[in-house]
């Protein structure tokens, strides 16, 4: 008892220590239990979330159902899920859907519940989960993950259920189970281990306490005090190191000998773009995709200090950066490599700045502008290669000199004073100056000087940019000249002439002053141009321009308006004087002989004269007056002078034509045309499908229909036939597209083209585009061109016809036989059909010559493998006659009258 009393403190200490050990063991058990549950829950969550990546893409769908592939697919899915569950030590992986208020399995791993660890009744695709926990039904409603412990026919489990969205938006649940027996086994293992260690430790301590003397216990106390002190110092030191590690301005990471990250600091996490939980445990050797970085990590694990610098894309692909990484190996106490430490810095911004500087430097070096950089005193510090090309001075000759060493004496000091005043105030300066090259040549330069400032706003340098504009100034003058002059004759052009005419019209307002305007149109020019070629035509125009100019007063202005049209403005001139002068010009042109090679040609000129006075109206009216007078001269037989007068009957008629021109233009703008059609019947082949020709009517402002014979001749005379042709083509193709289902009843549809359209390449392209867009077969279209138009534009017509024929369209030569050289030109025109002129058809019953002509045309056409059509078939007798001759088709009032195009859809086969 005395011994106990003397050592009471020791035994009390031992008892307290034992209780402490028990408490710590209990606490350790609870902590380990919590750790095990946390680790298992994380494993369950990871496993459940991995299921979607293991299953086929788009496996879960709203309408998924059992089919012939389901059994094979279910077997594959079961194998994949089972292998993954086995690898990560998970009891069961599966997916569920809710359909018709019933939970169904869509995939599942093997269920290890029998003695052999295999469930022989494997879960099949869309099998009902009969004893599902009620919480699972709620989960499909609130779509919240659940972690629960429950028991069903397979046993008692701790399970996680995570609702996920399929690609079509439907919901399915990914689930992972682990048996409670597994959890209990781990807890029991740890508990037994803890109890065993605690018991052994307590026994050892107890024996030590019993065996040791008081003196020894004092030494232990002293040692404990030292240990406590050193521990406190180590804890404090570790806290400092941890703080340094965590808050370092560079990224730091620690990895083991397998390349697995053990610790990272905040800056590293920011650089990589991932949180600590996602980085710890990350195996760099297996997952880092950058080859050079992976090599550097492997080198550090071989004991080498290694470095990586380059572009890095995080494995999650969420961040792309340019990194600089230093890797140092770490050694264990035994001298073996135990891992490594990496120091990482994001130098993306520096790299971008470096790259941008390189680009900028390259841009400056390769710039087509001359660039120099000077200090604030104007001393050159840099010049680019193009500066040398412009000035002739190399960089060695330029650097260190004042920036004005290549200035010319033509640039005044005032200009340079303004320059320095502006740039010293921080303002940009731009102007055009004349400088001197090294060889002494002067050149014009557009110079821009830009001040450069530092962060404090102080000007440190000037950038001078100069562009050699010597050639552009010359070109500008040439362009200005060309904008006002005709390049062929050197005369002023229409634009400049109308400008001067406007000034002349303004000058007579409110005064007695008069001027005179003359329009001159050459006669026979087209013949020479077509016969001898454009070179001859150009030379003729130059000589005529010189001839007219030689017979004008110095104050008169001569212009070429275009083609073979000229105009003369006679300033401060009476009408009678102008008429005399115009007749002199007419006489000179009449007597002029144009010699080209071995041919000699005579030309004429039709001249319209109009007075410009305060009563003659504005510029447009004066132009119209002169134009009307010129047309009148042509109508009266050409090669004459005609003066405009208000009461001139011929001009009044011409004026009526101009009103028709306006009417046609308005009809085009207001869409006041209508498509009509006339049938064409086969004579020799009664089974041939119907054909019809598209015709045109214009609707007047009063609603009445106007015959094409009224407005088409005027349209052709005043260059309006091409837009009319375009209108007809567009509307016909629109009609064909709208009735595409009924087009098979027709063999083809014919559309007329004017002579002006044959030389229009834009219209040619437009036709092919519209046919393609309308999805119409080109073989269903035949274009009719008149013989006269084709012959007068033979080259253009041949190209036009060949192009569309290659595209698939057909062509007919209309009014054939009316020209003087029909047969001579026929072999040069690639057409499919001849339409015999109606002048031969209408009198075929009474005029034997007409009958012979028709027979001749038909026979020649057939010899050339062309179809023939007789126009103006007005009666059955004429029809029988042309049928007997052998003509293939007939058209006319005796066959069918023109009617709205929609009526063609009701055509019966005509015989």
Keywords:
eight-stranded mixed beta barrel, alpha+beta, single chain, 911 residues, elongated, 30 helices
| Oligomerization state | single chain
Number of helical regions: 30
Q: Average pLDDT, to the nearest integer?
A: 85
Which strand order do you get reading across the main beta sheet? 24-25-27-28-29-30-31-32
Weakly predicted, low-confidence segments: none
The level of helicity is 40-55%
Which structural class is indicated by helix and strand composition? alpha+beta
The global form is elongated
Percent range for β-strand residues: 15-25%
Distance between the termini: 148 Å
Sheet of most strands: 8 strands, mixed, barrel
> Can you count the beta strands?
33
- The gyration radius over C-alpha positions equals 52 Å
């Amino acid at each position: 008892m005395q011994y106990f009393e003397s050592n009471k403190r020791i035994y009390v200490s031992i008892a307290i220590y034992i209780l402490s050990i028990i408490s710590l063991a209990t606490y350790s058990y609870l902590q380990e239990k919590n750790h095990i549950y946390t680790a298992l829950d994380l494993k369950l969550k990871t496993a459940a979330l991995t299921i979607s990546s293991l299953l086929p893409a788009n496996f879960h769908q709203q309408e998924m159902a059992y089919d012939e592939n389901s059994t094979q697919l279910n077997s594959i899915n079961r194998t994949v899920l089972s292998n993954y569950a086995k690898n990560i030590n998970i009891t069961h992986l599966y997916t569920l859907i809710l359909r018709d208020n019933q939970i169904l399995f869509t995939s599942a791993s093997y269920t290890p519940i029998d003695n052999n660890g295999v469930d022989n009744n494997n879960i099949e695709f869309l099998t009902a989960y009969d004893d599902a926990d009620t919480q699972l039904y709620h989960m499909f409603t609130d779509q919240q993950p659940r972690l629960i412990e429950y028991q069903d026919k397979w046993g008692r489990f701790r399970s996680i259920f995570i609702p996920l969205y399929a690609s079509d938006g439907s919901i399915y649940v990914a689930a992972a189970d682990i048996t409670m027996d597994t959890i209990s086994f781990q807890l029991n293992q740890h508990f037994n281990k803890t109890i065993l260690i605690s018991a052994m430790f307590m026994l050892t301590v107890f024996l030590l306490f019993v065996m040791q003397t008081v003196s020894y216990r004092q030494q232990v106390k002293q040692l404990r005090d030292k240990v406590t002190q050193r521990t406190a110092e180590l804890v404090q030191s570790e806290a400092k190191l941890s703080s340094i590690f965590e808050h370092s301005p560079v990224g730091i990471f620690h990895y083991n000998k397998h390349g697995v990250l053990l610790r990272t600091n905040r800056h590293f996490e920011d650089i990589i773009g991932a949180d600590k939980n996602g980085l710890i445990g990350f195996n760099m050797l297996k997952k880092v995709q950058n080859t050079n970085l992976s090599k550097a990590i492997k080198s550090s694990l071989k004991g080498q200090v290694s470095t990586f610098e380059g572009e890095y894309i995080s494995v999650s692909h969420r961040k792309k950066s340019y990194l600089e990484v230093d890797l140092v190996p770490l050694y264990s106490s035994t001298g073996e490599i135990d891992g490594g430490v990496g120091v990482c810095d994001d130098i993306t911004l520096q790299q971008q700045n470096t790259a941008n500087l390189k680009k900028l430097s390259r841009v400056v070096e390769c710039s087509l502008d001359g660039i120099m950089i000077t200090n604030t005193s104007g001393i050159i510090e840099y010049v680019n290669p193009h500066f040398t090309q412009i000035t002739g001075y190399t960089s060695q000759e330029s650097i260190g000199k004042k920036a004005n060493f290549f200035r010319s004496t033509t640039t005044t000091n005032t200009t340079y004073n303004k320059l320095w005043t502006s740039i010293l105030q921080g303002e940009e300066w731009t102007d055009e100056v004349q400088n001197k090259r090294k060889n002494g040549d002067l050149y014009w330069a557009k110079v821009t000087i830009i001040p450069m400032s530092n962060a404090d706003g102080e000007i440190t340098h000037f950038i001078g940019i100069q562009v050699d504009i010597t050639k552009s100034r010359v070109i500008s003058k040439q362009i200005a000249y060309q904008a006002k002059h005709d390049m062929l004759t050197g005369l002023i052009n229409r634009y400049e002439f109308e400008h001067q005419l406007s000034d002349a019209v303004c000058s007579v307002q409110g005064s007695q002053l008069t001027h005179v305007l003359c329009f001159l149109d050459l006669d026979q020019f087209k013949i020479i141009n077509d016969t001898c070629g454009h070179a001859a035509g150009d030379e003729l125009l130059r000589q005529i321009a010189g001839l007219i100019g030689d017979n004008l007063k110095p104050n008169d202005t001569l212009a070429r308006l275009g083609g073979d049209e000229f105009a003369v403005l006679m300033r401060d001139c009476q009408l009678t004087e102008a008429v005399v002068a115009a007749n002199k010009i007419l006489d000179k042109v009449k007597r002029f002989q144009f010699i080209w090679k071995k041919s000699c040609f005579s030309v004429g000129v039709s001249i319209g004269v109009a007075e410009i006075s305060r009563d003659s109206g504005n510029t447009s009216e004066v132009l119209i007056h002169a134009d009307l007078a010129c047309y009148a001269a042509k109508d009266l037989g050409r090669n004459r002078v005609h003066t405009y007068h208000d009461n001139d009957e011929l001009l009044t008629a011409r004026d009526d034509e101009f009103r028709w021109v306006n009417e046609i233009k308005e009809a085009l703008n207001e869409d006041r045309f209508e498509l009509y059609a006339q049938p064409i019947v086969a004579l020799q082949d009664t089974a041939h499908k119907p054909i019809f020709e598209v015709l045109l009517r214009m609707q007047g402002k009063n609603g009445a229909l106007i015959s094409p014979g009224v407005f088409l001749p005027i349209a052709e005379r005043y260059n309006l036939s091409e837009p009319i042709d375009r209108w007809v083509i567009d509307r016909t193709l629109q009609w064909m597209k709208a009735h595409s289902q009924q087009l098979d009843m027709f063999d083809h549809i014919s559309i007329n083209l004017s002579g002006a359209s044959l030389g229009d390449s834009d219209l040619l392209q437009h036709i092919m585009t519209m046919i393609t867009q309308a999805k119409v077969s080109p073989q269903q279209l035949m274009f009719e061109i008149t013989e006269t138009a084709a012959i007068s534009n033979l080259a253009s017509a041949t190209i036009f016809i060949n192009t569309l024929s290659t595209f698939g369209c057909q062509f007919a030569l209309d009014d054939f036989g009316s020209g003087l050289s029909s047969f001579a030109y026929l072999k040069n025109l690639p057409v499919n059909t001849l339409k015999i002129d109606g002048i031969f058809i209408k009198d075929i019953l009474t005029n034997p010559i007409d009958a012979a002509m028709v027979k001749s045309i038909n026979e020649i056409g057939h010899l050339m493998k062309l179809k023939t059509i007789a126009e103006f078939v007005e009666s059955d007798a004429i029809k029988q006659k042309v049928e007997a001759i052998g003509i293939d088709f007939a058209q006319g009032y005796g066959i069918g009258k023109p009617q709205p195009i929609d009526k063609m859809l009701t055509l019966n086969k005509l015989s």
